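Researcher: Please translate sequence to structure tokens.
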Amino acid sequence: REAEELCVEQRPELLVNHCYRTYLWARILGDFEGLRYDPELLYVSSLLHDFGLTDQAQSELAPPCFTLIGAAAADAAGRRGGWESERSRRAAEAVTMHMNLRVRPDAGVETYLMAAGTQLDVLGHKFWRLAPETVSAVLDVYPRREVKRGMVELFGQQAAVHSGSRARFYRYLGQSVLLRLAPFPE
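Model: Translation complete:
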């Protein structure tokens, strides 16, 4: 519940829907690949993975990578929810690592799936594995709300404040072009 409440506090709405889609894509990909994972841990980490991109987190006082804010929120939510420290740590790690260029299953199945879910939603990675009716069902419940434009803006803000961040690195790699090429309409 805490993760849901924190997720809903995120603005703009495109970020909230992105977090929920990340979770759904991660579950779909995990089931497709026959992976065993902790669905609650995946849910919490997915809902909080971009918490550091919220308006209140955009300052020079924030950590140099926005993922650290979401990781701290996931860890704290897990602990307050009665999770063992290792489970909370794994949720935090999934949030932190989702921005890596490549995340392998041996990094932790939830970490791998959450990264795969974000990459599918933002860049269309592994999109070809999804049935068109599955894509439609997810987008009907959690519309994209101009996520391509919004992510470019949010990453631009993050890159401007934190010059050594992964957000800045991805902008250098041409993230806005990759976003525009994603197989989603907006």
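Researcher: Any highlights?
Model: The chain is about 65% helix and 0% strand.
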